[in-house]
Amino acid sequence: MITAASLAALAMACALGSWRFTTARWTSRAPRLAIILWQSLGLAWGLATTGAMLAYAVEPYKVSVLPGLIAFARGEAPLEPWDALHVLAMIAGITSLAVLVVVLVTAGVQTLRARRRHRVLLALIARDDPGVPGVRVLDHPGATAYCVPGLRSQVVVSEGALKLLSEDELAAVLAHEAAHVRERHDLVLLPFAALRRALPWSKVVADAHAQVELLIEMAADDRARRYCSPRRLATALLRFGTAGAMPTPNGMIGVHAHDVMARVDRLIKPGPELATSVRYGFITLSVTLLTAAPFLWVIQL
């Protein structure tokens, strides 16, 4: 019972933390750190929520979650008789865990299929351009730039984007897209997109997904400005925003027109970085969240 109560308290803390985190103002000063904390909150919440139900369900076995589930799967008799609440908790816990896993796997499979189809399409309609080596060019008047993540990643720009941007602005945009590929932001975003499919009615989940989308853009902006002028990247974002950039194909990561001014402001007038002590504090919190739920799954309190 103590394990179930601890996991329930951890789940509530993660839910409350996520709700407060959606309005945090420091995240733009350390987007990578904020992404890690979001990942920690999401994983800990999922494990703690399902673990609380399963811990209560296996309480008659007088063991923690994982050993109790193993005993249940083997058909071993519990030390105490089952009652209706324990049975319902087992059904709810296994169902919730299965839904989360199935939604995540389904989202991953659908994304991989979309990318595979898009690569086939690009092979037919895109071309190489000696002016932008290593980049696939679409003969389309609309402005777009995006990456196709994966083992065979590609960066794609349209003819409209080539005409819209100066040489320096184009280099900044390509550096931004290369940052998405290098840091595998598609894998960062996938669990949050899957969770949003599983809980479409949750405002906190929708806000978290939007926050992570913005944070990966800021993280890519930060890496890109190591290789280009921040002002050139800012002007490129403004050009895409005013020109009405084409929507990014499903499963890809591209230039987003939303929250352009927030990104432009931090590129032109970057704020002070977080103090080292604050960074270590958030890292410690992330590590604690990532270890607490799995620890409670296997340790009987």
UniProtKB/TrEMBL annotation:
The chain crosses the membrane at residues 36-56, 85-109, 278-299. Binds 1 zinc ion per subunit. Residues 113-192 form the Peptidase M48 domain. The keyword Transmembrane helix applies. Keywords: Hydrolase, Membrane, Metal-binding, Metalloprotease, Protease, Transmembrane, Transmembrane helix, Zinc. InterPro entries: Beta-lactam_resp_regulator, Peptidase_M48. Its cofactor is Zn(2+). Coiled coil: none annotated. GO terms for biological process: proteolysis. This is M56 family metallopeptidase. Belongs to the peptidase M48 family. The keyword Zinc applies. One of its GO terms (molecular function) is metalloendopeptidase activity.
